[in-house]
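Render beta-N-acetylhexosaminidase in 3D.
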Amino acid sequence: MLSIRPRLAAIATGLLLVSGCASLGADGGERASTSSSTSSPSASATSSPEPSASPAVDPDTPTSWGPTVGELEQAQELVSSWSDDRLAGQVIVGRFHGYDPEVPAQMVRDLHLAGVSITADNVTDRDQVLAMTSAITRAARSDGRPFPPVIGVDQEGGYVSHLRGIATDFPHFQSAGLAVQGDARLGRRVTRAAAVATGLELRDLGFTWVFAPVADVTIGAADPTIGARSPSEDPKVASQAVGAAIKGYDDAGIVSTVKHFPGHGTATTDSHDTLPVVDSTLEEMREHDLPPFESAIKHHAPAVMMSHLDLTSIAPDVPASMAPEVYSLLRDDLGFEGVTITDSLGMGAVAGRPTPALQALEAGADLLLMPVDNAATHQVIVDALRSGEVSRDRVEEAAARVVALQMWQARLAAQRPVPPDVVERARAASADLLSAAY
């Protein structure tokens, strides 16, 4: 896996190659430069060329996943000066119990957490949610961060909607696939509009991340976990729905999280309870599971959530979220360069494994979602940094991606204010999606 600085160098090298290509004549053929055609052979033989400096990469050049090159460089410079304590916190998205806004705020301050995941067990009503997200944001600011925290929530639509009764109800993501299947252009339009409305409403409540869209291609009744959360049993239909949703979330200025790589739709057991075994060959995955993720990357997905699956053809007996081979599939084969985040580390699929967070971080995860014990996980990473069990370069790489993404989110949010009628727009978008699907 390439670190951030080599990737930036690769961009510069690519620009240099482009600038150094021979120019084209009117007929499209190569045209020799004037200097080479007029220089004498003896001069060419006796003089050695001056080394040319690599052209500076424009800091406003966007990456393939959102932030600019400049934001990525700024993030890398920032995290390089951090203590082990601060660096370890920046790769954890914590969990908490209860409704008190001060509890997650204190975790963010004390452990320097990247942020917090909010669940239905943490919310009561709109005012309490606003108080909670505001407290977390203030805590990150008081911790000296010039970027917003990760405040995420599962708000997929349908039954996986942790803000039910507080935010607008949207139908299952299956509705997006049905809408696309019925009329591809209309389906993409209403799916994108629904994602825009969801994202804006979440931002209005103080969130910066949404753990959606689901890119899993379900196999139907044998799939006990995903089901109607999946856009379709057809990879092509699912790919269109996922791409449209990501564009919509981007339009809303919120970080989307395509999940659960490389595809949970073929698993016949629930990873909330146990580690599902998936015996699909890599070729079968390429045909059935990977197309929606390829579409997501094509549409500049900023973050991908890794599944807890035992993929016997890639990394047997190891959860995908902790398998370097699966991160290599995502990054090296599919070309994803953004933030990788594990599925919840409190799930049954990874329960009882020794230091699951550290295993995931070493394998390639950039964010560790909802470990069972935030403080203990933070200390494990600090100890591993100090002992050299995990390299500082790996943790800096992860933290810098997260920081850059949060800088990007803040910039987009500033450019795209939440409209005063956001709730009315969300209700209309939900109705339009349902109408197009059925």
